[in-house]
Design brief:
Mean pLDDT: 92
Shape: globular
CATH superfamily of the largest domain: HUPs
Bound molecules: xanthosine-5'-monophosphate
CATH architecture of the largest domain: 3-Layer(aba) Sandwich
Structural class: alpha/beta
Helix content: 25-40%
Oligomer: single chain
Number of helices: 17
Number of strands: 19
Largest sheet: 9 strands, mixed
Strand content: 15-25%
Low-confidence stretches: 1-5, 335-341
Length: 512
């Protein structure tokens, strides 16, 4: 039986708006399962039929353009409750024979919303976030104005008997006061959702979908790094197809101290899939010998991953699907064509071109906290799901200058001491990432009666919400002093310890 048909689903029809995923996320925060479907998806009609309600997203186009994205007006007459947001409201108006016109000045930013008394989705006036160049000029039949702003006569419209609603502003963004209330009223009061969607439902639903896609014979490959995303993706797929999933872990020798062993242990214990661990550190060190330039290091590591997969292709066997732990933030980042490239991001490396597989990305619409909660639900241990973000190229990113086995050991040992002390003090809570980096300058020191001429270690600990910005974490001086003393005494090749106080921007989180 098709499980998703029995599950209450909100369909978010995507017209290319920058906040579409946020709509889906806000709905899920209200415990309503939401699915995003592109306006031109061949599945739109069948998805629409199965959904309990639909939201039409914003979008960059104008409904007045001849080639603008649209949907069949019949869908709006099917009785499914619909909320149109921004472009979505204009599309509603246009498809139902209202009129949309270009506004003289594009409106962008906050506006004070004035709802009419007894508007179905709106109660109080408040600041709302607007971003539009067109506006509804004539309401479609059966609609009334639900709110205005000083510059927008139809800031919201409604036809409650037909369960059709439109808002010109964006209720899904945090700048809109009471935005969540608008969504709540639409979903619960108008569309009648129960609001009982949880990670457990997500897992059940997604496993079912994966099983359907992969079929009874297909095999899937998941390259795992030990990071939260690939681990949860693998555990979820393993739940769906068991040992027809093969997880491949390439140990490049650039993990934190003891971490490679821990990854192997986690997979063997908690992920009921086939597991191939490849110890390839020698090969990676060879590829990195003499390389100083950080981008070149990343390139070589990426290239080596491909080579390892080629070398082990027969052990891995043929696979029809490639599973990836892509998250929503990755989707946005890679989607922004105009963003400047600061550095090449790289997780478990590309795969050889000859490995042509269909992609499975079960976490594509989730945010990190949702992934962690799914991981917990799947029974993964805290070491696996509460891990800090860690760069795919590993410690190569945290070693300035040449990467050698000795220098990796130095940074691993210093990193271990730093984090051991932070955990002992309970300071890890509230820290987004903490690590030690090894620099390639040398300075003079004195140890015993001997002169030393060695590299310094930099300690970095930051608080952050999303890694886009970050601040140095406050660590008591006495704790820093103890850590510094332990590192110079216990770690080979280090005679100084520094604490990095720089925020991002202007610095980055990593040192490379
Ligand atoms: P920066 O140093 O740019 O890092 O402030 C932002 C976040 O990205 C992580 N990072 C990576 N993550 N593959 C990853 O999956 C990579 O190649 C990579 N490089 C940096 C970094 O740890 C921080 O969380």
């Amino acid at each position: 039986m098709d499980k998703s048909a029995t599950h209450e689903t909100l369909l978010v029809v995507d017209f290319g708006g920058q906040y579409t995923q946020l709509i889906a996320r806000k709905a899920r925060e209200l415990k309503v399962y939401s699915k995003i479907v592109a306006w031109d998806s061949p599945n739109l009609e069948s998805e629409w039929r199965q959904a309990k309600a639909a939201i039409l997203s914003g979008g960059p186009k104008s409904v007045l353009d001849s080639d603008s994205p649209t949907i069949s007006p019949d869908l709006l007459k099917s009785g499914t409750p619909v909320l149109g947001i921004c472009y979505g409201q204009q599309l509603l108006a246009r498809l139902l024979d209202g009129e949309v016109v270009k506004v003289e000045h594009r409106e962008y930013g906050k506006q004070l919303l004035q709802p009419v008394p007894n508007a179905a989705l709106l109660r109080e006036s408040g600041q709302v976030w607007m971003s539009h160049g067109d506006a509804v000029a004539t309401l479609p039949k059966g609609f009334q104005v639900a709110a205005t702003t000083s510059t927008c006569a139809v800031a919201a419209m409604e036809a409650p008997e037909q369960k059709l609603f439109g808002v010109q502003f964006h209720p899904e963004v945090t700048h809109t006061e009471g935005g969540k209330e608008v969504l709540r009223k639409f979903l619960f009061d108008q569309a009648g959702f129960r609001g009982d969607w949880t990670s457990a439902n997500f897992i059940e639903e997604t496993s079912e979908e994966i099983r359907r896609r992969v079929g009874s014979k297909g095999r899937a490959l998941c390259a795992v790094s030990g990071g939260v995303d690939s681990t949860v993706a693998a555990a979820l797929i393993a739940r769906a197809i068991g040992d027809r999933l093969v997880c491949v872990f390439v140990d490049h020798g650039l993990m934190r101290k003891n971490e490679a062993a821990q990854v192997v242990e986690t997979f063997r214990t908690y992920v009921p899939a086939e597991f191939v661990a490849i110890e390839a550190s020698g090969q990676f060190f060879k590829a990195l010998a003499g390389v100083i330039d950080p981008e070149e290091k990343r390139k070589r590591i990426g290239g080596e991953f491909v080579r390892v997969f080629e070398q082990h292709a027969s052990e891995i066997g043929d696979c029809d699907f490639l599973a990836q732990g892509t998250l929503y933030p990755d989707v946005i980042e890679s989607g922004s064509k105009t963003a400047a490239k600061i550095k090449t991001h790289h997780n478990v490396g590309g795969l050889p071109d000859c490995m042509k597989m269909e992609l499975i990305e079960p976490l594509r619409w989730l945010f990190k906290d949702e992934v962690r909660s799914a991981g917990r639900e799947l029974g993964l241990p805290s070491e696996a799901i509460d891990r800090e973000p860690f760069p795919g190229p590993g410690l190569a990113v945290r070693i300035l200058g040449e990467v050698t086995p000795e220098r990796v050991r130095t940074v691993q040992d210093a990193d271990f001491i730093f984090r051991e002390e932070l955990f002992r003090e309970g300071l890890n809570r509230g820290i987004w990432q903490s690590y030690a980096a090894l620099l390639d300058v040398r300075s003079v020191g004195v140890m015993g009666d001997e002169r030393t001429y060695l590299n310094p270690i930099v300690l970095r600990a930051v608080s952050s919400e999303d890694a886009m910005t970050a601040h140095a974490s406050e660590i008591p001086f006495a704790v820093l002093e103890r850590i510094a003393s332990r590192i110079v005494n216990e770690v080979q090749g280090v005679n100084r310890v520094l604490y990095d106080l720089t925020s991002k921007p202007p610095a980055t989180i990593e040192w490379e």
